[in-house]
Write a structure and sequence with these properties.
Layout (H helix, E strand, L loop, with lengths): L1 E6 L5 H12 L3 E3 H10 L3 H10 L7 H12 L8 E4 L5 H10 L4 E6 L2 H9 L1 E3 L5 E3 L23 H15 L1 H7 L4 E5 L4 H13 L1
Parallel strand pairs: 1-3, 1-4, 2-3, 4-7
Antiparallel strand pairs: 5-6
Helix pairs in contact: 2-3, 4-5
Bound molecules: adenosine-5'-diphosphate and zinc ion (ZN).
Length: about 200
């Protein structure tokens, strides 16, 4: 199964992806995670990407597309894959269309007020787990024991810029995939499990 998770920052793509990757047994490909890994390792791509990410801007298409292209060539992607955070622009979607055919695009739909609340209290772990300050008071991840951190781009002024980039550049993908008959909506205002159940019922169709 070839799947795309679409949605604004904070919609819950990452949380759903962690659950879906186990259930569907396909690799979870997150461009955000790939960039953060490059930043951590101090690579050239990482240094370049960070200069955009810290400003709440999208990393330019050319670099982003190259990363995904080479990842999709790995043998574990033959049985399918789940893209989280890619494509994020029309040119990225067009590039992806040239590489392969996608089965489902799940758009996780969340109200802006909910998104703002989530992003301002988000705690992240290197393993992909995500927590919120209002409901989680430990400093270590309950999945892997890793130390939780606030992402550099989860500062308030950066959050607003990321939402702006979403509106301008990513939201048009909803119509792009709708016109191809591939778009399915899942409401993401509620709990992680509620959203997960909706996604599963879409995939069963
Ligand atoms: P979120 O969805 O919460 O914003 P991500 O981890 O998906 O978090 O992305 C973090 C940042 O990484 C983005 O704000 C952007 O700068 C960069 N990024 C991730 N994916 C892409 C992409 N497909 N195209 C351009 N930039 C990207
Ligand atoms: Zn963890």
């Amino acid at each position: 199964m070839k799947l795309i998770l679409l949605g604004a920052p904070g919609a819950g793509k990452g949380s759903q992806a962690v659950k879906l990757t186990t259930t569907l047994n396909v690799p979870h490909i997150s461009t955000g995670d790939a960039f953060r890994m490059n930043i951590k390792n101090g690579t050239e791509i990482g240094i370049y990407a960070k200069s955009f990410m810290d400003k709440g801007l999208l990393v330019p298409d050319e670099v982003t597309i190259k990363i995904v292209e080479s990842r999709l060539q790995q043998p574990d992607c033959e049985k399918g894959f789940m893209l989280d955070g890619f494509p994020r622009s029309i040119p990225q979607a067009e590039a992806l269309d040239k590489i392969t055919d996608i089965d489902f695009v799940i758009n996780i739909d969340v109200d802006l007020a909910v998104i703002l609340k989530r992003l301002t209290g988000r705690l992240s772990c290197g393993c992909g787990a995500i927590f919120h300050k209002s409901t989680y008071s430990e400093s270590a991840c309950d999945k892997c024991g890793g130390t939780l951190f606030t992402r550099d781009d989860d500062k308030e002024e950066t959050i607003l810029k990321r939402l702006d980039a979403y509106k301008q550049t990513t939201e048009p993908l909803i119509d792009y995939y709708k016109s191809k008959g591939k778009l399915f909506n899942a409401r993401g205002n509620g709990s992680i499990d509620e959203c997960f159940e909706q996604i599963l019922s879409i995939l069963k169709k």
